[in-house]
Specification:
Its EC number is 2.3.3.13. Pathway: Amino-acid biosynthesis; L-leucine biosynthesis; L-leucine from 3-methyl-2-oxobutanoate: step 1/4. With about 500 residues, the protein is of the alpha/beta class. The chain has three domains: about 280 residues, TIM Barrel, CATH 3.20.20.70; about 60 residues; about 110 residues, Double Stranded RNA Binding Domain (2-Layer Sandwich), CATH 3.30.160. The protein has 17 helices and 16 strands. The strands form four sheets. An eight-stranded parallel barrel has the order 2-3-4-5-6-7-8-9, surrounded by seven helices. Strands 11-12-13 form a three-stranded antiparallel sheet. The protein is globular and about 70 Å long. About 45% of the residues are buried. Bound molecules: acetyl coenzyme *A, 3-methyl-2-oxobutanoic acid (KIV) and magnesium ion. Magnesium ion (MG) binds next to loops.
């Protein structure tokens, strides 16, 4: 294979801009490590000027991750660029990514700048960033609704000022593949110096064409795809990494273009993002959805039994969905347990493995067969982030359709026990109110969901809560897993509270 494209992952920046997809420091580091395992070329770790928390997370990732370039976004403002540099400066390889909108509507109404002022700002700020860092990316925000000749001038200006990567984003997901390809062709033919830089695409999915547009861009000469795990991102999301990468791999006959991604890490990355954000992908989501490799119809099943290629264009193993060779249950030992975790992509240190094994045995007493989803639930998909300040000790709930629900909850904090009771119109509310009394803070429940992790009567439930503590701007995601729906819900609420205190 001749050409390769770089994969620029922006799960931690644009992905985190998805409503409800905020991540804390430990979670961002876990995601960054998984991106390292995926062998992405560039990790956009955040937007340093957005908040001290964002800047700290980028710096921690710059200190931790090796192999990938670590990048921070910055507006065309000196203070943003300085904040970006300060957060990435310790990375093995660092990039400042600065951007400015170039479409008439953005320039006039949002920036209140004339086209000439935009050109001046690009020249000034790219040159300013270049003083700190040799690797500079410039993005012309809303490039796809910008006047093409003006866009050529902007790109030329950025290149002259020192940009080494030029991104042509479809900020509002407006493009059609052929149209984007011809824009790229026009830019390549009418922009001085463009042959000396990396050309990048960054497509949004408002019309469901982010992946198709990225691939059309690559065919038209784009060298870098900006994308996110599970396609999370602003509004309808960004181009999904797993779809772009597997399209290039599966249709190598058509594209003849490779990338460095270790595709067997895709499934784990997808599960990790779902667990951390509490945002599940649709069962029909390509590559990573629960049905992506399931065959329901008789004719399909018959075909697959004869030869998988009748209905499978890629194998589940190629994206890291492991074959279920070992059945885990109450008679399984540490070796089989550890082996299965390995197959699922988890390597736990001795202490975490022992804790997980203990939990596994307790669960195996309640459930006949422990499935992969149960295991992921059990180890929390990512090793427990931060210290567990509060843990659930016990609960008693009284509920019915003709009575007010009451809950008595006992929570452990260090060596102390705290117990409170509360009444409400439902058992979940009553439990959460009892916990609020113990914590002594105002906690607003923004969202709550419950789903079965596996099928069958003894399935474990996974509860996800999104809470806001003490009027904080940050919504925290908590997660709890149990065969008992009430226990899962209470654990999720306590997990969210622990995360709030760990942030
Ligand atoms: C297409 C994208 O995804 S762009 C990235 C979007 N991501 C985010 O916005 C998340 C992080 N953002 C934030 O935390 C905040 O918006 C901050 C800290 C960056 C700025 O906050 P505030 O100072 O309160 O400004 P606010 O967000 O209300 O408005 C944006 C300001 O930046 C200006 N601006 C927007 N884009 C740019 C740019 N690329 N370069 C320079 N200025 C810009 C706007 O014109 C506006 O300026 P004004 O305050 O002088 O009117
Ligand atoms: C900052 C830029 C690259 C962006 O996210 C967009 O234009 O969508
Ligand atoms: Mg974007």
């Amino acid at each position: 294979m001749g050409r390769t494209v770089k994969i620029f992952d922006t799960t931690l920046r644009d992905g985190e801009q998805s409503p409800g997809c905020s991540m804390n420091l430990n979670e961002k580091i876990e995601v960054a490590k998984q991106l390292e395992a995926l062998k992405v070329d560039i990790i956009e770790a955040g937007f340093a000027a957005a908040s001290p928390g964002d800047a700290a997370a980028i710096a921690a990732i710059a200190d931790t991750v090796r192999g990938a370039t670590i990048c921070s976004l910055a507006r065309c403002r000196e203070q943003d660029i300085e904040a970006a540099w300060n957060s990435i400066r310790r990375a093995e390889s660092a990039r400042i990514h600065t951007f400015l909108a170039t479409s008439p509507v953005h320039m006039e109404y949002k920036l209140k700048m004339t086209p000439e002022q935009v050109l001046e700002s690009v020249a000034h700020n790219v040159a300013f960033a270049k003083k700190f860092c040799s690797d500079i990316e410039f993005s012309a925000e809303d490039a796809t609704r910008s006047d093409l000749d003006f866009l050529c001038r902007v790109v030329e200006t950025a290149i002259k000022a020192g940009a080494t990567t030029i991104n042509i984003p479809d900020t509002v997901g407006y493009m059609i593949p052929q149209e984007y390809a011809s824009r790229i062709k026009y830019l390549r033919e009418h922009t001085e110096g463009i042959e000396n830089v990396i050309l990048s695409c960054h497509m949004h999915n408002d019309l469901g064409m982010a992946v198709a547009n990225s691939l059309a861009g690559v065919e038209a000469g784009i060298d870098q795809i900006e994308c996110t795990i599970n396609g999370i991102g602003e509004r309808a999301g960004n181009a999904s990494m797993e779809e772009c990468v597997m399209a290039l791999k599966t249709r190598a006959d058509h594209f003849g273009i490779g990338c460095n991604i270790e595709t067997t890490q895709i499934y784990r990355a997808s599960r990790m993002i779902q667990t951390i954000t509490g945002v599940a992908v649709a069962p029909t989501k390509p590559i990573v959805g629960a049905n992506a490799f399931a065959h329901e119809a008789g004719i399909h099943q018959h075909g697959v039994m004869a030869n998988k290629e009748t209905y499978e264009i890629m194998t589940p193993e190629s994206v890291g969905i492991p074959k279920n060779a070992i059945v885990l249950g109450k008679h399984s030992g540490r070796h089989a347990f550890e082996e299965r975790l390995h197959e699922l992509g988890y390597t736990l240190d001795h202490e975490k493995l022992e804790k997980a094994f203990e939990k596994f045995k307790i669960l195996a007493d309640k459930k006949k067969v422990i499935k992969d989803r149960d295991l992921e639930g059990l180890i929390g998909a990512v090793p427990v982030s931060g210290e567990e300040r509060y843990t659930l000790d016990r609960f008693v709930i009284n509920s019915g359709n003709t009575i007010t629900s009451t809950a008595v909850i006992r929570v452990k904090k260090g060596d102390e026990m705290f117990e409170r009771a509360a009444a409400s119109d439902g058992p979940i509310n009553a439990s959460f109110h009892a916990i609020d009394k113990i914590i002594g803070k105002e906690i607003v429940l923004e969202d709550y969901s419950l789903r079965a992790l596996t099928d069958g009567e003894d399935a474990q439930s996974e509860a996800i809560v999104k809470i806001r503590v003490d009027g904080s701007n940050e919504v925290v995601t908590g997660r709890g897993v149990s065969v008992d729906v009430m226990e899962a819900s209470i654990k999720a609420y306590i997990n969210g509270i622990n995360k709030y205190f760990n942030d």
